[in-house]
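Blackboard transcription, Thursday session:
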Amino acid sequence: MPELPEVEITRRGLAPHVEGRRVDALIVYDRRLRWPVPLSLPRTIAGRTIERVDRRSKYLLFRLGDDTLLVHLGMTGSLRAFARPPARQAHDHIDLRLDSGMTLRYRDPRRFGAMLWLPPPSEAHPLLARLGPEPFSPECDGDHLWTALRNRTTPIKLAIMNNEIIAGVGNIYANESLFRAGIRPTTPALRVSRVRQRALVEAIRATLSDALAKGGSTLRDFVDSAGLPGYFQLDYFVYGREGLPCRVCGSAIKSLRLGGRATNFCPACQR
Ligand SMILES: [Zn+2]
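(Written on the board underneath:)
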């Protein structure tokens, strides 16, 4: 599943090819995504210029004047740029043709992604309105977490995966960040001290930064490459390592499920 780093790398990969370009045509082959692609979208977007590509949480936001095209990659989506797109294949659902001759192709085998048109103010759209701060934003510090979590008995891992508290921290990065901060995932959020909340924010940023650094090396693959975007294979500390020795202390990594998601931790390093 594309997480924040994959979406951010997609944004960086696409931005130079789309910013300042006019949309010649949007061709929707199959509109049955998580929410149907609006029937009016091709007519609405044709002739408009993409000024900028932003990211909020795991949403790509193409800015066209005051309007926004929101793209979510869901569980299996990808958005690629082609100078000469290959013949369309199964799961290639949407082509966005630009005046430069480039085509952005949206592919999504499981179709949990989305492509929606947001009139201004886009921040008020239900998908965006309640998002918490971005992990790298100045307002997302230990004090923010402390304030947001002080009355919550929910396990800390579920709290940091809650987009209303902090935006875009998915399962892999929640697992890894909690290891780096030495916090057990099941700890009730309100039991994590203010000092450890600060360490946790730093750990989240460090984990995401490492993934972004890895992903940066895949940027050139965004053009004329039909492959899926890389899922950045970090040397995970705990994620997917049940039963294997902790890289720090050698204890066997444990596994349980929280909120239905695989949760891994070191019973010695994480308290
Ligand atoms: Zn350990």
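Lecturer's comment: The two ends are 28 Å apart (CA to CA).
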